Amino acid sequence: MTMLDTALVYQSPKLGDVSYSTEDVIRFPQGIPGFEQLRQFLLVTREECDPFIFLAALERPEVALPLMPLAPATLAVRPSRTALAPLGEAGEDAIAYYAVASIGLNAAEIIVNLRAPIVINLDTRLGCQVILPDETLPIAAPRPA
Predict the structure, then answer these.
(1) Which fold has domain 3-142?
(2) FRET label pair with 11: which of 42, 63, 81, 101, CA 20 to 30 Å apart?
């Protein structure tokens, strides 16, 4: 089988055409709060949008959430093992953390949600959004440097 046989194209009104394979799909078994019915996503990067990465819904191409990678040290509280159980077993290197970002007009203001990170197991290709128990963590924090 050649690359052309396995290549799929995601057509997004926001991100354009994105080639991907079935191995690139990240599944969210419980969906994401606000998008519970959506279960299959791609992580899409665009050089011109750096440092943002987009969590693009395969089922609804108009849905693409801007994310910012988070270093685990940025999180004052880590998700519990129970919260991460749906992701399957993984070493610490296989777990990626992202903050959902809100981008104001002309990118003048960028805020991120540090209370509910998107967590993805890069080995199992499973993801979830975890609401951390620390109520002092902001849901609208200035963009981390």
Answers:
(1) BH3618-like (2.30.290)
(2) 101
